[in-house]
Amino acid sequence: MSTRRHLVSLLVVTAACFVGASCGGSDDSSSPTASSASAAADSGSSDQGGAAATEAQQSDTQKGSASGDIPTLSDGAWEGTVHVKVSGDVDATFDAPGGGITQGGTSIMTFASDEAATKASQIALSPEGSSVFVTVDAVSVGGNVGEQCSVSASTNSDAKAVVDFSCNGVEGVSTKDLKSHVVDIEGTFEVTRPA
Asked: DSSP strand E in 89-138: where?
């Protein structure tokens, strides 16, 4: 398979995973948390009950990192590099060039090595749901921010963003033999505006 086809296939799979993770699921109004929050608000319960409902609603809307809110990057194009370390069933460290776009508070970053895109990372940041994906040595793994993964920005301006990400115990699959692998991921991407 050509390098270009491999990269396009990788991007299509990543986009499908992100859309499934962000858009899938049930209507919030049918969730137990939303129902109890709604019931507490409708019943005019005491301040303590109202505070509990507010906390439940906030925890649903703050799906983000363990270290704070998901960074919202400025709208526009970005370019830069990513440094990724994978450990566990697969061990690898790589740096890769790439970039992405932010539109309406949602950022999608893609970085791929020059080695036929055998090492790649995709990061999707959105208030509705964020994910981290890594492909290394024919193993694709990923996780959702706020569950297995966390993100934080040490720099976040209109001209530059530096975002750290980590995932613990994420599961993936080898495209060679379809065996399952569990890894930890640590990384940082640094992006600026294209010249």
From this structure: 92-103, 106-112, 119-125, 131-136
Residue 44 domain boundaries: 31-61
φ/ψ (deg, to 5) at 21: -70, -35
Of the candidates 145, 146, 133, which has an alpha carbon nearest to the alpha carbon of residue 183?
A: 133
User: Please, are residues 130 and 109 in contact by the beta-carbon 8 Å criterion?
Assistant: no
For residues 35 and 76, membership in a common domain is answered with: no
Count of CA atoms in the C-beta half-sphere (13 A) of 11 = 15
Which residue numbers in the chain have pLDDT < 50? Answer: 1-68
Domain identity same for 57 and 81:
no
112 lies in some domain = yes
For residue 10, tell me if it sits in a domain: no
Token duo for residue 133: 């994906």
Q: What pLDDT score was predicted for residue 85?
A: 97
DSSP state letter for 103: E
